[in-house]
Amino acid sequence: MGISTEGWLTRIEDELKDNILGFWMEHTLDKANGGFVGEIDNRMNVVAGAEKSLVLNARILWTFASAYRIYGTAEYLAMAERAYDYLTRYFTDEEYGGFFWMVDEHGVPSQPKKQIYGLAFAIYALAEFHHATGRSDALRQAIDLFRAVEKYGYDPLNKGYIEALSREWQMTDNLSLSSKDMNEKKSMNTHLHVLEGYTGLYRVWKSDELGASLAELIETMLEHIVDADGRHFHLFLDDEWHVKSESISFGHDIEGSWLLVEAAEVLGDEALLQRVRKVALSMAEAVLAEGMDEDGGIWNEADLSGFIDKSHESRDWWPQAEAMVGFYNAYQLTGDPRFLQAAENSWTFTDKYIIDHKLGEWYWGVDEALQPLARAPKVSAWKCPYHNSRACFEMIGRLAATSPIKESK
Question: Per the domain annotation, does 405 fall within a domain?
Answer without folding.
Answer: no
